[in-house]
């Protein structure tokens, strides 16, 4: 699971550009709908996360350095 998350967002061991989902305004509607389904709260990615969240032996440490920077002072 960590490798999937790192690959989508482009950090960690899969560092790079990720899936370049930042400029969502530039993709067509069908691609946007597919991406929303995949990453949405009821989508397959988070369904796996929800199942793993109840397993006390499964742990994923998200690096704080990968959080977005706040632009508000």
Based on the model shown, name its key terms:
single chain, 73 residues
Q: What can you see in these coordinates?
A:
With 73 residues, this protein is mainly α. The protein has one domain. Helix content is 40%, strand content 0%. The chain contains three helices and no strands. The longest helix has 11 residues. The N and C termini lie far apart (34 Å). The model has no long low-confidence stretch (mean pLDDT 77).
What is the number of helical segments per DSSP (H or I, 4+ residues)? 3
Shape: globular
Which structural category do the helix and sheet elements fall into? mainly alpha
Report on the biggest sheet: none
Which assembly state applies to the chains in this document?
Answer: single chain
Elements, N to C (H/E): HHH
Task: State the end-to-end distance.
Answer: 34 Å
What Rg is obtained from the alpha carbons, in whole angstroms?
14 Å
Residue-averaged pLDDT: 77
Record field, number of beta strands: 0
Helical coverage, percent range: 25-40%
């Amino acid at each position: 699971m960590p490798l999937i998350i790192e690959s989508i967002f482009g950090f960690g061991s899969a560092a790079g550009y990720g899936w370049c989902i930042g400029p969502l305004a530039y993709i067509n509607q069908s691609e946007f709908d597919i991406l929303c389904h995949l990453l949405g709260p009821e989508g397959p990615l988070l369904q796996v996360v929800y199942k793993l969240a109840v397993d006390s032996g499964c742990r994923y440490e998200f690096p704080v350095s990968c959080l977005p920077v706040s632009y508000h002072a």
